[in-house]
Specification:
This protein is an all-alpha fold. The protein folds into two domains: 1-47, Orthogonal Bundle (Arc Repressor Mutant, subunit A); 49-177, Tetracycline Repressor, domain 2 (Orthogonal Bundle). It is elongated. It is built from nine helices and no strands. Helix 1 (2-18) crosses helix 2 (29-36), helix 1 (2-18) crosses helix 4 (50-66) and helix 5 runs antiparallel to helix 9. It starts with a helix and ends with a helix.
Length: 181
Amino acid sequence: MPEANITKRALGASLKTLMQTRPFHKISVGDICEHCGMHRKSFYYHFQDKYDLLNWVFYSEFMQLLDTTPQTELWTYMQRMCEYFAQNRQFYLNAFSIEGQNAFSDTFNETLESILSAYLRQEIRDDAFREFYCDFFSDAFRCALLRWLRESKPASAEQFVALCRRTVDSASVYGAVHPAP
């Protein structure tokens, strides 16, 4: 299916380009098709709607990056994730601004939670609280990531991840000294 992949990539590239200058809610399927010279029929052959295309862009690019990193290396995952988001900053700022039923943050959270869950399964033996920790760290990381992307002069991805790691390590040390009731 190389031809289908070419079509999907062209539609995805079109959406990414348009989202550099326009909010997602102001981009129509017609705009995406016109930008890359395709017919709406081609779009709907591959995607249900523009939300489906947005999620495909995320999964096809983001997950490809992560597929080459061993699951046990959480901080390597996070570093690569942040480098990717920094390179696609405006696109993802627009994507994260989508609210409601098709909110991109839900898609991102599911992905991040699965990454964290795989890591936490190895690190946290307390099954009763593992899901809570996973949700907590996913939410905290998403919020910190958004704040970092919104900064006019953000720290490098490496510095940002180092700060996140230091925060998590500090919380772990505190938790070891002061266990939950």
